[in-house]
Amino acid sequence: MEQNGLVPKDMQIVRKAVLIISAAIVLIVAAIVVGSYIYIKSALQPVNPNDKSVVHISIPIGSSVSDIAAKLEKNGVIKSAAVFRYYVKFKNHADFQAGDYKLTRAMTLEEIIAALKTGKVVEEMKLKITIPEGKQLTQIATIIAQKTGYKQEDVMKKLNDRSYIQELIQKYPMVLSTEVLNKNIRYPLEGYLFPATYSFPEEKPPLPTIIEAMIAKTADVLAKYEVEMGDMDFTPHRLLTMASLIEAEATEKADRQKIASVFYNRLRIGMPLQTDPTVLYALGKHKERVYYEDLKVNSPYNTYIHQGLPPGPIASPGEMSIQAALEPAETTYLYFLATPAGDVIFTNTLAEHNREKAKYIRKE
């Protein structure tokens, strides 16, 4: 206690100690901020503006941005792999090409990135595989088989090899997790082979080379949305699952963000998603129409009898559907209907939905 306006000596010591510690903390934080700024600014500059000697860099098929950054740093072409990764993400760069490149330590990050995108190596590729958006794993396996000469069953065997999938989880932890090994999931890698065009220097590359090129592409695409995924508390698995539903329901004329809003509105009120593509996936067949009897299929993928998302993706979604899953429109819609012309009609109530359905859907 203070007496006669005087502060006890021990109280003065405590106050001085607090002031000294506070000042020290401020200085440490300032030093860290300044040091980080200096480090990042330096890392963004060429390694040596005067060193134009050629450095040969080989980028294998299926390399992720992290793989490329590590190789560039190891060969002394960039100062920091971490800064390179964040720079690529911040600038939204993508579509790096595999192959052999001639780089120098005098190149800027933008010059290096441009070189990795526009190398002539693409012209030397002997195999090109195009995976359309919305294809299921079995369909992708068929495309790979047709292009390479592998048997479709051998491709599927590799895609379902549990020991190989464990290796992939270790190699691509930013996109793959043990969620894909859930016993209710039909195919662990369903939804993870990104729809795009892939080029290879061999006519028949090893299957892991093909598979990992597609997984690496998924990892690179999702890396661009890391902040949005965190905001929505989405794991890559949940995001790809939601995006696959949007992809499966979308037509060329569809507003994917509105479709996403319907799914989120249903989830919000505890309503089953009731999306027909999950029923067809559960049935394991393609049908032009889903009948009431089909809705009874006993499967964890059947969103008519199970609330929430299915256990995993039902197809490989494209980036537009991934964006829609992360940025849904703000609506009150609970229903949508695709017309034979490909238009999508959104409604708020079941009565409105049934009225539109009676207009456009022929009864059989």
Automatic annotation (TrEMBL):
EC number(s) stated in the UniProt entry for this protein: 4.2.2.29
Keywords from the named record: Cell membrane, Cell wall biogenesis/degradation, Lyase, Membrane, Transmembrane, Transmembrane helix
Sample GO molecular function, one term: lytic endotransglycosylase activity
Its membrane topology: Single-pass membrane protein
Localisation: Cell membrane
GO CC annotation, single: plasma membrane
Keyword Lyase attached: yes
Catalytic reactions on record: a peptidoglycan chain = a peptidoglycan chain with N-acetyl-1,6-anhydromuramyl-[peptide] at the reducing end + a peptidoglycan chain with N-acetylglucosamine at the non-reducing end
InterPro entries registered for this protein in UniProt: MLTG-like
Positions marked as site (Important for catalytic activity): E249
Listed GO biological process terms: cell wall organization; peptidoglycan biosynthetic process
CDD domains: MltG_like (cd08010)
Transmembrane domains' residue ranges: 17-40
Described function: Functions as a peptidoglycan terminase that cleaves nascent peptidoglycan strands endolytically to terminate their elongation.
Protein family: Belongs to the transglycosylase MltG family.
Record-given protein name: Endolytic murein transglycosylase
Organism: Anoxybacteroides tepidamans
Name of the gene this protein is made from: mltG
